[in-house]
Amino acid sequence: MTTAVEHSLRALVVDGARDGSLGPGAKLPTERALVEQLAAPRSAVRRALEALERDGLVVRQVGRGTFLTEAAIGHAGGAPADTSPTEIMQVRQLLEPQVATLAARVATQADLDRITHALAVGGEAADFESFERADATLHRAIATAAHNGLLMNMFDVMNTARALPVWGNLKRRTSTPELRACYHHEHTDIVTALRDRDPDGAGTAMRGHLQHVADSLLGRT
User: Fold this and answer.
1) CA angle 60-132-102, nearest 5°?
2) Distance of CA 179 to the CA centre of its chain
3) Three-state DSSP state, 61
4) Which residues pair with 61 in a beta bridge?
5) What is the DSSP letter of 24?
6) Which among 7, 66, 143, 155 counts the fewest CB atoms within 10 Å?
7) How far is 147 from 168, CA to CA, in rounded Å?
8) CB count, 10 Å around CB of 17?
9) Average predicted confidence (pLDDT) for the chain
């Protein structure tokens, strides 16, 4: 579930990228300044920054601060606010199986290690929020492993739709522990194919997983 603080922080980043006041590599205000600017507790600001870092909008460097990434510029022209869950799933089903297919061919061992770690975190997730965070991290790690900048930009624009309230509310309403366990098993099949360097298997596993997600979210089961 996307919080109000995260929405506000995303808006700050996107607006700055759109009006040119924030460019790639620009340093964001300190946590203390964001607490004041967003009128939010520091813990909520930290969680929001973690979410933006997970989505590739910012990078945080210990002792230096938080910096805007190239991907954030693409988000300035991200998913329209009225994008429907059906539209989101249509684009995911078109894009992500091909991403997985390419990743199986070109992923480095470091990529596969990050993907495997994200899978493990998802398997240990005890509630909706932690599973959603792990799910987003896993899918983005797979996209990153494709090593294609243009494809990554397309993925990031699509991924902005995950922050829309209509998406988060629908995911929360339909989520159950049993469904999350099933998704984890499907994620495991995807990762196994990636680690086996099986492009067809990775694409097929991703396609099947996203069909299940679409059916569950849109009431087709």
Assistant:
1) 75
2) 19
3) strand
4) 65
5) T
6) 7
7) 28
8) 23
9) 87
